[in-house]
Design brief:
Layout (H helix, E strand, L loop, with lengths): L1 E10 L9 E7 L4 E3 L1 H11 L5 E6 L10 H9 L3 E6 L14 E5 L16 E4 L6 H8 L5 E6 L4 H8 L5 E5 L1
Parallel strand pairs: 2-4, 4-5, 5-6, 6-7, 7-8, 8-9
Antiparallel strand pairs: 1-2, 1-3
Helix pairs in contact: 1-2
């Protein structure tokens, strides 16, 4: 059973899948506990094969919630799985069952960034003063790097990000 905040359809607003129709499964601490089979059934009713499903947490990281069975079930039913994690927890044994990881970069994270593939994404969520350091450290990983920045910081972010390959900036 997982604590489900919501299951809804929408368009991806950031990251490599921007603009793609997605089913968002948001999990969280004080939400209703729902059996994994019921979550899968709900997603199946809302989707067709090869639909993207993004699993994310509201108040805590989804890797702490035991989502492995959900991920494996959806994958076996031909859904594309994207998992958002804050990067603080250890990489799960079922890493490659997920089609795309979106991992928040953090200095003391336990997620094995070396396990990420070129289709995965590292998301920068820190202060802009740390952006150059993030891009320098992460350039050794084949992943897509991106950050969400306010419009008023566009010039500053452009100056830093343009020095690196495979960096995307989303302005809000």
């Amino acid at each position: 059973m997982l604590s489900v905040v919501s299951i809804k359809r929408g368009l991806r607003q950031e990251g490599p899948n921007i603009g793609i129709p997605t089913i968002f499964v948001t999990l969280g601490g004080y939400a209703d506990k729902i059996p994994t089979e019921d979550i899968v059934e709900t997603i199946l009713m809302m989707s067709v094969k090869n639909t993207w499903v993004t699993i994310r947490g509201q108040d805590e990281d989804v890797l702490s919630m035991g989502i492995g069975v959900l991920v494996k079930g959806l994958s076996s039913l031909k859904r594309f799985i994207e998992v958002e994690t804050n990067g603080l927890l250890r990489t799960p044994s079922w890493t490659h069952t997920v089609d795309r990881w979106v991992v928040d970069w953090c200095v003391d994270g336990a997620f094995n960034l070396g396990a990420l593939r070129a289709t995965d994404a590292l998301k920068f969520t820190g202060p802009l003063e740390e952006l150059d350091a993030f891009l320098e450290v992460s350039k050794g990983y084949p992943t897509i790097k991106y950050l969400v920045a306010p419009h008023q910081e566009q010039d500053r972010v452009l100056d830093i990000a343009s020095k690196y390959e495979r960096v995307r900036v989303y302005l809000c």
